[in-house]
Specification:
By secondary structure, this protein is an alpha+beta fold. Helices cover 42% and strands 17% of the residues. It is built from 18 helices and 14 strands. The strands form 4 sheets. Strands 5, 6, 9, 10, 11, 12, 13 and 14 form an 8-stranded mixed beta sheet that branches. A two-stranded antiparallel sheet has the order 1-4. A two-stranded antiparallel sheet has the order 2-3. Strand 7 and strand 8 form a beta hairpin. Helix 10 packs antiparallel against helix 11. It starts with a strand and ends with a helix.
Length: 446
Amino acid sequence: MISISNLHPTTTTTATPSFSKLSHHLNLLCLSNGKPNITKRTKLTIYASKLPFTPPPAAPPGQVYQPYRAPPSSPLPAKYRNIPIDEVFDILRNRLGLWHEYSPLVGSLLRDGFTPASIEEVTGISGVEQNCIVVATQVRESLLQSKTFPQELLSYFDSSGGPDILNELRRLNAVQRADSAKYIIDRRFEPRGAMELARAIRDFPRRRGDAGWEFFSADSPGDCLAYTQFRLSKEAIVDSDRIAALEKALEYVETDKARERIIEELNKGEDARKAEAEALAKEVASLKVVRLRYGEIAEASSVNLLPVVLANEGAKGVAAAPGKCKRKGELGVVVADKGWTRWVVVPSWQPVLAAGEAVALELDDMRGLPWPSMAASQENVLVLVDRIRKQVEEDGAFVVEKEGKLVVERGRKLKEAGVNTAVAAVIMVVRPPKDEEDIISENEWD
């Protein structure tokens, strides 16, 4: 409560005026003909708790608070410049024009300090729709600037569903947007179809190493969408679901190589699929995959020092790596036959000791391995190989060079492709150690 006691003693007022009115009344009470009136005493009692009060927003020290202003979404068309605010609201309220014509007005109002809620209250355009048309306008602008997208096709998105379709393409790059927009127009996709297409394009690079991935093209939106269905067919339990997914993939696919692979899978019988699954499971079981434990190398009685080769160094990198390192002298000094910059220390496992010349191939993640059960992991791994063994056998895995990079392939698949000589044979796969909590939980689960 605030008391002011230099006014008339018989007057007591309790009020809840606004700040501007309160200041005006105080000036009238305290001044008489422009001079302070001290002859009369009036008591004015004001309850501060009843005054409207909004705390000012916090601002960094030394800086004056500035209200949020939305960044410009697109240039305001000339016909909408310098028009009264009531006309702006009238255009938005009655949707006067195409959605991409009046959408810049939403960004203009946001920059002027209006909130999405206040715009919705006046115009009836919800905050979700405001965001949708603003983002869709940005996507449309990128299509206008694209050299590969026919400009006459832009009218396809002028309908009421156009913003929802273009909004789904917001996370794609400029080239993918143009290709996807053409594919959507050719197939007459609805917003849900556009959403599935955009998800398939973003997901396709992460599926590298999955079964059949190499037959599909990342530059083709249809191939990306077809591969999603192809992958779902592999996960289907009922044969009818598998066939339905493959038929959808055949409907979406664009390249001949991918189409042939889908037809081959579609014509494959139930017995053949089961035999392939059993063979793949047998290969995975025979492959030695180990996970290092913290302190395992320090506790090992003997260790091996192996040169490390990167996948992009190709077959030349494997051939140039030093041979088997030897220990010399009473102190066991390790001596290599040539200089090398990347090394790794592993315990003296029996497969490594039995190898002719062991070399470690470093992969960024396990998606480079040809087994779907392992390709789901994205952790960094080492593939230990024997570069002396180059003869391809059906049982086992081998390292070959494709487009200048080293990749791991199944021996059976290489035999079917007519490849008899590889860069090296896979000895084992080494995974990095995990936290102790994860290791304990895995043991308990097992």
